Structure formats: C-alpha cells, structure tokens
Amino acid sequence: MRLLVLLIGSALQAAEPVIFPTAGIKQPVEILIDKWGVPHIYAKSVDDAFFGQGFNAARDRLFQLELWRRRGLGLLSEVLGAQYVEQDRATRLFLYRGSMEKEWAAYSPDAKKIAESFVAGINAYVQWANAHNDKLPLEFKLLKFGPSAWAVEDIVRIRSHGLTNNLTKEVARAHTFCKGGMENGQKWDALRAGLEPKWETKVPEMMNPCIPGDVLTVYNLAKGATHVTNEAMEGSNNWAIAPAKSATGRPILAGDPHRVQTTPSLRYIAHISAPGLDVIGAGEPAQPGISMGHNGKAAFGLTIFPADQEDLYVYELNPANARQYRYKGAWENMRVVSETIPVKGGRMAKTDLLFTRHGPVIFTDDKKRRAYAVRTCWLEPGTAAYFGSIVGMRTTDFAAFRGGMSHWGAPNVNQVFADVKGNIGWVAAGMVPVRPNWDGLMPVPGDGRYEWAGFTAADKLPSSFNPAAGYVTTSNEMNLPKDYPYQERKLGFEWSNPARHLRIDEVLRPMKKVSLEDSMKLQNDVVSIPARRLVALLAPLKSDVHKTRAALDLLRGWDAAERAESAQAALMEVWVTRYLGKAFRKAVAAESPAGVELEVMLAMLEKPDARWRTVLLESLTAAYGALEKGQGPDPKKWQWGWLHKSLPLHPMTGSVSDDLRAKLQPGPFAVGGSGYTPNAAAYRESDFQITGGPSFRMVLDVGAWDNSRAVNFPGQAGDPDNSHYQDLAKLWVKGEYFPLLYSRKAVEAATEVKLVLKPR
What we know:
Elements: E1 18-22, E2 29-34, E3 39-42, H1 46-73, H2 77-80, H3 85-93, H4 100-105, H5 111-131, H6 138-143, H7 154-157, H8 167-192, H9 217-223, E4 235-241, E5 252-259, E6 268-274, E7 277-283, E8 292-294, E9 298-304, E10 310-318, E11 321-327, E12 330-333, E13 335-343, E14 347-355, E15 361-365, E16 370-376, H10 389-392, H11 398-405, E17 413-419, E18 424-429, E19 444-445, E20 463-465, E21 471-474, H12 486-489, H13 499-508, H14 516-523, H15 529-538, H16 546-555, H17 567-588, H18 598-605, H19 611-631, E22 645-646, H20 658-664, E23 669-670, E24 682-683, E25 690-694, E26 696-701, E27 709-712, H21 729-733, E28 738-739, H22 744-749, E29 751-759
Parallel strand pairs: 1-29, 3-6, 10-19
Antiparallel strand pairs: 2-3, 2-29, 4-5, 4-21, 5-25, 5-26, 6-7, 7-8, 8-9, 9-17, 10-11, 10-16, 11-12, 13-14, 15-16, 17-18, 18-20, 22-23, 24-25, 26-27, 27-28
Helix pairs in contact: 1-5, 3-9, 15-18, 16-19, 17-19
C-alpha cells in the first residue's frame, strides 16, 4: 500500500521542497514546477519517471482524469445519475475488447510496463486524495464523490476520446444520394464535399442510400464530450524548417494542434527525465509520454492525416430473430454482451450490447428489418489514441522515427520531424483499411461482399526526407504527392479546406531565413485566403443601393486579416456564414439536403456566370444590415471580437451558480481568425462562439532547446484554486509564449515549487 503525506494548497507555494514518502518507487523522484506550471520530472530510472508523470498528472488534473476515465469506461451514471445511462451504454460499445496481449505487443515490448508505472503513480495520488478529501478539487466537493483507482488496461481500452475519420461523412453522403438519386446525388455531393484527388463515387451495389436520419445518435453519444447539466473541429498545423532556411542555422519545428478548447486544456505540458529518456512537450494528461515535443536529439509534432478509418455496415435481419443478420447467404448470430451499469443511488441498469463480425451495432430499424454497425480501426489492437507516442518520442534519427511510426495506430497523423544533425522530414502514419472493391465513401451492405483486406503497409504511406524546398508543412490538407497511386490505395478523399496550408506555404516559401519569431507570428496569423478571394470578387462590383455601396466600400482594399478588432472581419464572417452560403445554395442546388463546401463555392463563383452578381450583392447587403442592427449604424465601431469569442468550457459550467461559474469558467475571450486562418478559430453559426482551435502551441529551436517557446490555454492546472488554472490565458490571447525550458540549470532558475517523492 502506498502512503503519501502531502501538503497541498498553500504548501505548494512554499520555498522549501515538499517531501512525501511513498512506496512504489525505488529511488527519489524530483518534480520541479516552473513559474508557468510546467512540471519537470527527474528520476533515476524510467519506471520511476513514468510513476512520477502519473502522480503529477493526477496532482494537477485529478477531476479531468476522473471524468475522462468514467466517460471512457461508461461509468458516468454511477456518480452523476440515471441521465447518463444512455451515454454509458454507447461508450461501452466502443471499448477495446480484444486480446490484451496483442494490444500491448502492438506498441512496444515495454508498453505495458510503462502503463503500469504511470497508473501506479495516478493511483498513489488518488489514494492520498481520498484519505484527505478536504483537499480534493472543488468539482468533487460539488458533486459529492471522490476519485477512483485506475486499472492499467484503462489506459488503452478507452478508445472513444480519439479522432477517426469518415463515418459521419458517409452518412451525409448517403442522405444526399437518397434525396437526389444518382444524377442529382452526384451533383449535390460534389458541392457538399469536393473529393480530392479527383474522384467520383457510386452507390454500392444493392445498397439503398435511404438510411435513418438518426442512425448515428449512439455513435455521436459515445464520442461526445461530457458536460454536467461536441467536438466540432479536427485540425492542426505543423512545419519543420531546415538549417539552410532557418535564421538560427538549426532546424525549427513548430506545431499547434487544433481540438475543442476546454477548461482544463485537452493538452498538458510535461518534462520527463531519466537515464535514457529526457523528453519534453505536450500530451494528453491521461496518457504516459509526450506526443509533441523533443527528446534533446530530435523534435516531433503531429497533425491529423484525414485517411478513412471507418465504415458503416447495413444488415438484413432475420424476420424470425432480430439478433441474426444475413452474411454470405446464411443467418449469423450477433454477439451479445450483457452488462450492468451502476447508477447513482445504488441502482443498476442492465443492458445488452450487440456486435456483428464487423463491430458494434449502433442502430436497429425494426420496421425495415435492418441493423447498422460500425467497423473502425480504433477497435483494432494498437489503436489507443496517441499511445504510440511512447515509441516515437524516444527515437533520435529519421529512419528510427519512421520505423516507430509504422506501429502507430490511431488517429492517422502527419508527423513532422527535425533532429540536431540538421535533418527534417514528414511521415504519414496510422492504420488505413484496404478496401479491394469499394472506396469507403458510402455505407455498404454487411452481407460479406465488402470486406477489408488488411491494412495499408506503413511503407505505402507517403513521406519525405530533407525536401528541396527546405521546409515541410501540413495542415490536414490533401497532401498526397502528385505521383501517389491514390486510385489503387484509396487512403481517403475527404480532407480539410486547403486555406490554412496555402497561407502558411505562401508565408514560408519566399522567406530566405525563417526565425523562431516568424514561426510564432505565423501560428497567430489571421489572414484568410477565402476572404481575400471574396474581396477580389467584389472589387469590380458597384451599386446605387446605399447599404450595398457601404458594404462594398468597407471591404474594398481590405488585407483579409481577420483581427478581433476588425470591422471588415465581422462583416465578412457574418456574410459568409449566414447569408452567402444560403444564397449560393438557393441558386445552384435549392433541393439539396446538404450545404456547400466553401472551397467548392469559391471555385464556382470565380467562373463567369450572370447569377453571381445578384448572389453576392444581395447576400452582402443582408449581412451589412444585420451588423447595423447588432453593433450599431457606424461600421467603424464594429468588431469581429464582439461576436467571435473563445469560451473554453468547463464540464460543470451549465450546472452551477453564477458565482461558481465565474470561478470555474475562464473567459469569454475576444479572438480573431476563423476556421480558414492559420490561427484557426472555427465557430458555431448560431452565436459565433469558437468550437475549436489551438490550445497548445510550440516552436522548438532544435539543438538550442532552452530557446524554445510554448503556451497552453487557459493554463496547466485543473484545480480552480491553483494559481496555474488560467494564468496562461492572457499570453495565449495576445499570441505570446513562455520559454519551454529544458536544461537542468535553466529549469532550476525558473522553479517555483519543488516536490520530492521519497521511497518508503
């Protein structure tokens, strides 16, 4: 049993080291917490280092870890009540249920040992916290329960936190073809998505695209965030600069992953140092290791590579037995897993989870005798989100890094790399199913005619090493090389809008020397290429209508920089989001059930057509009028930031008093940009509140590591009473950073608090 004696709260601000004895480590572990809340964990062995990482993650993010674990395992109802039973059931459908021996082996020989040490550290702190419940974070006191112990398997069995691609898009495409038939379906789908590289999909043979509108309810519930009363953005930017193009004469590596912005942050920065391991950067607090950072020899950073990892299968059910489906001409039994969900108050909810040979059943249509199941890579061995980082973070040259990425499962990522020898590179990594006879863009019958034939070999995925351009950058765009055999491998055809990548590329390409400051400035860049293209379309237009003329005058000559204080940005985004898209759709595809992708719309608007003048001017005038009503008659006083705000939601925001909400919930913060700027800030159409973007940013000076910079929004800590709960928010909003210190000397000079784990 581990006994911890730890004084937290005011004691953590003391100048003297805080010592606490514990069983479970062999030698002392030091945790130096710098003035920005970054823990630097020093141990005499790798096992003790990961123990320290787990202990410290629980110390700083205890409620977040507890909620994460309960949501992932389907145990929310036990502490939050019966209203979470359906979410618990949905989540349990997507737990990893395969061989644990194969699971651990898929990562590395020491994967289980690393997880065991990390979980032992978490549980050591959980044990102490439950013995001193007056020291628990505020959320536990409000909800009247305490943290629970982890099992080592929890680290990898939970899969629903990861990002996978294409199920929701399959369903949207099916609905489009259902309403439009083959001819209109093709046309409308081309407007909705714009497949890349050039591709034309077909409805699979004997597949009725008219599937239920709520077929994904359970799937979305399983992946959805938990708020005590959706993730909307998948994106990121990264780049690596070669020494010849770098102002430092050394490589520079930058990364800013884009996810939903929450309190506490999805990311957590840490430094783990032991013999044979000295790595710093960001990961997810519930995972051991570092996903984005450096190890003193090499730096690494990731973005999503939007390959297709999922399929929706549709089955004919046996009229005499709803738990049998037709497969290869015979009736096959579904696998039934009966589980009991504990519910607050001592009750139990019993449920049957159904699985076909392809995966969990998420919907049954009793009238039409159809069932729908998901086949997804994230239920294969080795696909716990980001756990593959335990291999990549330890490699020191590109060949080893690429080899390590061959074991990466999910999510699919673009990994950029730079090392102290001056090399840079890019590797696409992750599981991609081989679909011999279809493209993965539509749901398919589950009768045996559409089966995966293994996974694309790692050496068949694209990569580059020391490119002639002197840099490599990715932003989730379609980045398959021109000669890539995409027709054969069919990795995917649905990528992010290219605007962020194009803007980053147009900044980096002409620069002879790129500095750290240039990279930080570029991460905060709010120039919108789509906005620039629309301004160019408006330039030759004139009107005698007062509001139309005023709107044209306001946008004429604008540099398309969507700053928070910009009136032009306010008009542009209100216009595009609420008026232009609808007017364009009405003109070209009024009956389509789907929207129009911005890149597709711009490409059409840039071609001569008599319709476009009316579409542009009438919708622009309506947007101008809406801003007059919302922000007053003087456009000089309009500001994009009055509408466009980041509110990094705390899970309990909707269930507490105003006073407590003010304590728990940072913000809102006025922010510039949009979903199409390098400083990505996608938002809800209803109120322009930001739904996702960068919370963690890093710019690494490869080889002169103490010059590196980072920021984590809104702060490092998860306890509202901790001084590091939201202390980085002001830096983040202003586009500023703190030093990501690495050398022991620099760390000690910036240390505020020293904790020591001492063996009993």
